[in-house]
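Interim report, section 4.2 (structural modelling).
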Amino acid sequence: LAKTTQPISMDSYEGQEVNITCSHNNIATNDYITWYQQFPSQGPRFIIQGYKTKVTNEVASLFIPADRKSSTLSLPRVSLSDTAVYYCLVGDVNSGNTPLVFGKGTRLSVIA
Amino acid sequence: DSGVTQTPKHLITATGQRVTLRCSPRSGDLSVYWYQQSLDQGLQFLIQYYNGEERAKGNILERFSAQQFPDLHSELNLSSLELGDSALYFCASSVGRGQNYGYTFGSGTRLTVV
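Predicted structure of the assembly:
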């Protein structure tokens, strides 16, 4: 699986937009980019997945440039409840034998 | 409720003992994955099953084993427990064999070895 690099931690005030960038220089042609959110003592929760350009759902947006060597998770107008660890993962979603491998993630702290 | 059920939620046991953790995947999901999360190691992939067959193995110790039954529920067996096995154990499920559509995680079993 392509290795990913993301900031260890970030702080933000409530109501701000938060952008978390993930670098994946060795991303392969068949790889997708997936983001998960994890609250303390809970299992990770799928947020968004994309291959290229922009993907948006009710929770977040994912921006992927043309070279796909990085991606940015955008959380609009964060609230205290968005305080969590966010994981960026890259891999072939259609492969049967390559399970998700989690890195350290980015610990987001939202401040009132 | 994610649809993935893990039991028990908490487990306290002594060193050297054996425990079994149970996971019922979300309805319709054929793949089950087990992860271990401890404070110093993060989320570590242990093992994957697809429709009853082992598909991938991660950093699973020889003292640990798992299986997936015909009704698709899975059990993770941990034996000769050590203090360092204390962790949160998560089960996740997905529709197919790969990552498509993402994984759905359960709420985990917190194992404490004393």
